Amino acid sequence: MAKVLMKGNEAVAEAAIRAGCRLYFAYPITPQSELIEYMAKMMPTVNGCFLQAESEVAAINMVYGAGGAGKRVMTSSSSPGISLKQEGISYCAGAEIPCVIVNVQRGGPGLGDIQPGQADYFQAVKGGGHGDYQLIVLAPSSVQEFADMASDAFDLADKYRNPVLILADGMLGQMMEPVEFKPKKTDEEIAILGEQHNSWCICPNQDGDKKHHHEINSLEIDPLVLEKHVIKLYEKYAIVEKNEIRYEEYNVSDDNEVLCVSFGTASRIVKSAIDELKGKGKSVGLIRPITLWPYPYEQIKAAIGPKVKKVYVFELNMGQMVDDVKIAVNGKVPVDFFGKVGGIVFTPAEVEEKLEKCF
Hints:
Shape: globular
Number of domains: 2
Structural class: alpha/beta
Largest sheet: 7 strands, mixed
CATH superfamily of the largest domain: Thiamin diphosphate (ThDP)-binding fold, Pyr/PP domains
Strand order of the largest sheet: 3-2-4-5-7-6-12
Number of strands: 14
Helix content: 40-55%
């Protein structure tokens, strides 16, 4: 398929449909409104269900129901809307419901503004809802990657029976770039995807030899039963940590004097600064975590070469991922941080200026 020029919000919606998503529930909020508008237009053309819920709380509980029926289901929102979904997200994690959630982040806290930000990191990777649970969290940095992650997210959700969160931002949602889509799944392929959940989902509920009644539930009154369930969840998370860590290395070598860590669209700005410094004969590397959970702790540690004097973290927040970077570095070298908030995005020149002072 030839590449097409699309906004990130529209590209991830189209990719989700191609990946077999036929149920989508959401409530509009800027800067992800194009996503819900695209779904409203396109879902009927594939015999899917689009429903604008009365609230974000309603939307995530519709996701719980559809995912519990073994269907590929997605919801999306932006920062304050994702906050409203947190109880339902915890329910989905507790009941092991496979589903995909897209957060096109904006400035906060509170209603904040509609400009891009990355201040939902803690909420995404440290459990924004209650209880012990983890989401698989993917962080795209381009429209192409945003689209590709829709397919990957559904596959991961099905594989591990776990919610998957795609953590984008307003810049990525609104920018337009060329994107090439994966082939559409056929109706037969989508039916097979649903059948793989028949051992646990509430459908089908048939008579005869195949009769079964499955319960989708996150309530356990007996503390011993709940403890056993949570331990089982964390055994699953350990498998995810072993198999699903994803990251990108950019200009990483033994000659690096500084190692940068950045995720999402912020990493693109850092790459530009690194290219400028490379032209001046200065060696700076970048590790870009693609999975924010599971997090590439060991990969960051391994990238600290013999000449590295400092690790520099760049985020569009007041410093959130920097805590995980410090865990990875474990005191080996100093860790510094630079961020912008309120929807303000740092420039390559600002990043370059910070890095210059490290030499």
